[in-house]
Amino acid sequence: MSRATWDEYFLNIAVQVATRATCDRKHVGAVIARNKTILSTGYNGSVRGLPHCDEAGHLMKEMGGRESCVRTIHAEMNAVAQAARNGVCLDGGTLYTTASPCWDCAKLIANTGIIRVVVGEAYPSRYGLSDSVADLLAAANIEYVMPVAP
Q1: Which residues have C-beta within 8 Å of that of residue 149, sequence separation ≥ 6?
Q2: Domains along the sequence of the chain with CATH
Q3: Rg (CA), the chain
Q4: Are 15 and 31 in contact (CB under 8 A)?
Q5: Are 32 and 93 in contact, with CB atoms under 8 Å apart?
Q6: Are 29 and 19 in contact (CB under 8 A)?
Q7: CA distance linking residue 22 with residue 30, whole number of Å
Q8: 123 in Cβ contact with 66 (< 8 Å)
Q9: Could you give the 3-state DSSP secondary structure of residue 66?
Q10: Which of 62, 76, 121, 143 is catalytic?
């Protein structure tokens, strides 16, 4: 077995973080790291203190040509929120996520000081998200690496 690269290492941790997800439609995990140190983690699920989808049901809305559950907060948003809650600065960090960010997550990432995003799995191009997200992050001078197999 060969030694994992840092990208593989943190993406593997994001895969484990995804096991905490409370949305049964898709489990996504995110890790934010800087200088080989984890700053924050997040997974997709209900807003803190509110019922999970498996308890309350999914709240589906049409978004970007597909249905999405809007009851949940995405893994990337959750990782940024956890950092903010704990007073952790994300400047110069790398966000590792098991699935490519949505448009809203990409906009949030662009405003955090994160300089690099590493993705384990891209959403199908038929949704048009991967290309537009990549363009947005590139315009914000954020390196976008996809996909990296954990």
Answers
A1: 8, 120
A2: 6-145 (3.40.140.10)
A3: 15
A4: no
A5: yes
A6: yes
A7: 14
A8: no
A9: strand
A10: 76
Question: Catalytic annotation on 76?
Answer: yes
The letter for the amino acid at 95 is: L
- Fill in the amino acid letter for 64: G
- pLDDT tens digits, 17-55: 999 998 877 899 999 999 999 999 999 988 888 877 777
For 134, residues 6+ apart whose C-beta sits below 8 A from its C-beta are 144, 146
In terms of DSSP H, where are the helices of 30-140?
53-56, 75-85, 103-110, 129-139
Length in residues, the chain = 150
Q: How far is CA 47 from the centre of its chain?
A: 15
CA distance 125 to 46: 27
* Residue 130 confidence class, pLDDT cut points 50, 70, 90: low
- Tell me the one-letter amino acid at 60: M
